[in-house]
Predict the structure.
Amino acid sequence: MVIDSQKLKKLFLDFFSENEHSLIPNSPLIPEYDPTVLFTPAGMHPLIPYFLGQPHPLGKKLANVQRCFRTGDIECVGDSSHLTFFEMLGSWSLGDYFKKEAVSLSYDFLTNKRWLNLDRKRLSVTVFAGDKDAPKDNESFEAWSSAGVPDEHIFFLGKEDNWWGPVGNTGPCGPCTEMFYDTGKPACSPSCRPGCSCGKYFELWNDVFMEYNKTPAGCYEFLKQKNVDTGMGVEHTAAMLEGKEHVFQIGAVRPIAKTVEELAGISVPTDTEERSIRIIADHIRASVFFLGDERGVKPSNLDRGYVLRRLIRRAIRFGRLIGIEKDFLNDVAEVVINLNEFDYPLLKEKQASIFAELRKEETKFKNTLEKGLRKFHRIAENSATIDGRNAFLLFQSFGFPIELTQELAAEKGIEVDEAGFRNEYEQHQKVSAASAKKLFKGGLSDASIETKKLHTATHLLNEALRVVLKKNDIVQRGSNITPERLRFDFNFDRALSPEELAAVEDLVNKQIRCSLPVVREEMTVEEAKTRGAQAVFDDKYGNTVSVYKVGKFSTEICGGPHVNNTKELGVFKITKQKGIAAGVRRIRAILTNPEEPKCK
Ligand code: SER
């Protein structure tokens, strides 16, 4: 029997349930509370606070399927393995079992007849060879060896291959052990080994032993607890299990690509056409998941909306390249929805709005695409670079995301002055493109004490705004926290007066001076709602949620982490406020060193 993605997901979850892991829900693609990433980049991402020691409401052993999106891979899509949107199977031990048990579970799932039933002889693994930051991973070697993997199938490799994390610059990370399956293809060279990119060895699974925390100074310190974080890409593994050459041929993706081929009237694509078809299939698949997310995104020129716009416009452009003249996004989107509605019923529920948004964006862009392309070619004919002004003109007048201009320029072997573009952009838009650019790269804020303090201060600010502005319907629309400052977006349709800003600061500082305890409780979502908890996300932990209370002042559903008492915070100061969209305001604030804390 062929194991396809659907079956693989079920087997994985059944296996870990049988082995006493709690199944946690698939979180939204848009992280509910994360300082610094735009999209969930890995199954482990929503769990970072728990690697750091916070207890998880569902226990110490967890597993799930998580939808993920990686912007870094946009340019690679089109080859045989890259997807921007994908699903990841994950299992975790939060300070419970470690290497030996993790390896034994992985081996069992891969080779046991009841599960994937892979041929043991074709399995090989890699383990961390050790370096100045962390020792050679003999423990994993021993674990594999005693599980039954012959020593000559265990390879020691360096950090590039066998180290994972942190997400961003700092945070939990550690050595990993990866599992590979020999496809039977000939070795590309005598030194060909697991991890080689020639395609002989198929990467199946990655077990990360998260016992380190990388500090801002670049040091690796031990975390309070030793964690296991495993990740298996669904589409990728399904390709191997279904006996396919690549991810675009699997049952969960092929019908999308096939629809694109039909729309283009292509029956046997050339290599170039194949690349375009894959890009379109991937980008529309991702766009549907963005638009149909619990916390849905719409195309715009900022942050998440910009990434979505880029995906959609890139799909349209590649559509034109392979000769699709009519509007086609909805035809492809419908296939994506039908393929995924079983696991993601919300996609079907939101089908009408997904279609409407795609149509709107398609109409907007197709009107300017042709003209913009002509303009681009005229500029490109006459110069060796596209300067900032022209790149901005293409953006402003023809809706070309800078990346599109760069891609077109690269095809012609010419450069784009990106810094010049950003300069123009900032001047015209009064929006920091650089900060958006930084966000595109993702990166999770560390869980440093400074970040925790600002996180607690964010809860105080959230409540203080409701009190001072006398508006109970104020809710968080976004948040971004670094160790230096907090940024908080909320719905409000005018600028706050200096008096109001001062009143908000005073109210927050009063809570700080009152040394309020910060207490975490677990309860059902209903109970949290009854207690008036602020919530910026839905259903993340199934029915049980973690709620943070700051004294009696603030109650919020939140994953943490926070300080233990507001007296740790210092003095709260708002540094800036501005409107970022119709009806949405942004406040930036910092904490400065406290004078003697005293409760008035
Ligand atoms: N964090 C690891 C990965 O993304 C395992 O989940 O591969």
The chain has a mean pLDDT of 89. The longest strand covers residues 201-214. The two ends are 72 Å apart (CA to CA). The pocket of serine is lined by residues 42-44, 90, 164, 206, 208, 229-231 (CB under 6 Å).
